[in-house]
Design brief:
- The chain has helices at about 5-20, 45, 55-65, 85-90, 110, 135-145, and strands spanning about 25-30, 35-40, 75-80, 95-100, 125-130.
- The protein is an alpha/beta fold.
- A five-stranded mixed sheet has the order 2-1-3-4-5.
Amino acid sequence: MNDEYFMQQALKEARLAFEEDEVPIGAVVVMGGRVIARGHNQTERLNDSTAHAEIIALTSAFNHLGSKYLPEAALYVTVEPCLMCAGALYWSKIGRVVFGAEDEKNGYRRGIGDVPGPWPFHPRTVLMGGVLSEDCAVLMREFFRSKR
C-alpha cells in the first residue's frame, strides 16, 4: 500500500460527500499501514462550518486511539487543508499530511501567503501535495459545475 492507495480511500470519502451534496472533500487517517479513521465534509448536514473532512477524521482517530496526539499517523485528504484544519492538524501533532489538489482560494496558504517561515503545521509534520491531484480536482470541478 502506498500514497496513491490511501488517497483512493480519501477519494471514496469525497464521493460520499458529493452524493450528500456536500463539498466533495474526503480524508482518512492511516497508522501502521491501515486506515484507522475516515471523514468527509458534513458542514451542510450538521449545519456546522467546522465539520470539514479533516476534523471529522481527526476526531474519529482520537476516539479510536484514546489519544489527542497522532505523531505516528498520516492524514490523506483530497484537497489542501484550510487554515482552520491546519491548526487542528498542528494540535494533533500528526506525523504526515498528504493532500491531492491544491486550493488557491481556501487552502492554508491563503492565510499565510507564500512567505517563507510561517508554517501552520506542527514542526515535525511532513507535508506532501499533489497525490492523485487531477482525480481530486476533477471531483471538485464537477461539484461546482453542477451548482452553476
